[in-house]
Predict the structure.
Amino acid sequence: MNILYYYHDVCGLGDFYLLFPVFDALRLKHKDDKITLLAREEIIDIASNKKWFDTCLDTGHTNYPINQYDRVYNWDIQKNGITLFYPPKKHFWDIVETNYDVVLDRSKFSDIFRLDLTDDEKSQVDKILPKNETNIVIHTGHSYKFPFGKTPDYEWWYNLISALPNCNFFQVGTKKEPSPEEPSRISPDFDIQSTNRYDLRDELNLRQVAYLIEKTDTFVAIDSVVTHLSLHSNKSGIVIWGSSNLRTHGHEHNINLEALRHCGKAPCIDLGGFVVSDDTNQNCCLMPSNAKKDSWPLVEEIIHELATNPAIVTSQNII
């Protein structure tokens, strides 16, 4: 049987990485079948050298030959019930286990989420990092990156970096501007102007970002693919949660800090990732235009966690 895995261009990088255990389980279920992955280039790259796909096709260079396959898996996670409004007591992996009738072998997660890099890719990262200094990865996103409400504003991130002049902050993410040819979720991350910020946006592939997290002391990030890439090494970091759901997408090895929702609602930024016709999302207290300064964890709280939490390994005093 010929099987196609279709991962649409607008689907998130983080969700694809979190699906790795499902791909592993389905490979056992379809061990005699040919599996083709149809996805954009960076999605294919993150799964480099994994044995779950027999062939990979880039959506940018193919005519989507879906009718040639006996079975098609559409990996649009929101169509499988995983949205900001999914019942919060279920984690991502519990949901997909039920939806795809597979059993995820959690004892294999450390191997499943481990990413392969070439020696040259590792060397590129190693050369960036100063030795015997405190090095911290950050991923900020942007207030107006869709879906909204996932990150504090520019000032919050600037104050964090400025308050720790003895630390080196390595910013990952993207500088890309949205365009008609790009998925609508593309948006540039904050460009933090600080002397102890090193701009690595668009300089590393995702496998290298995972290795960067492994080789640095810790990370501070929003709910994003960067946070999930900590599964590569189980390196503990601080994750800031706004509109997205900690109980669905969080990981126990991290320090997870949630924003306060003054509107008193559950995650209410959007319904399943799409702007709705009523004003539910427009009235949410985490919308950039409505956000209160005390919604987000205090910068002082982040500094306290970095300095005192035993889950975070730092090589130097950060203050």
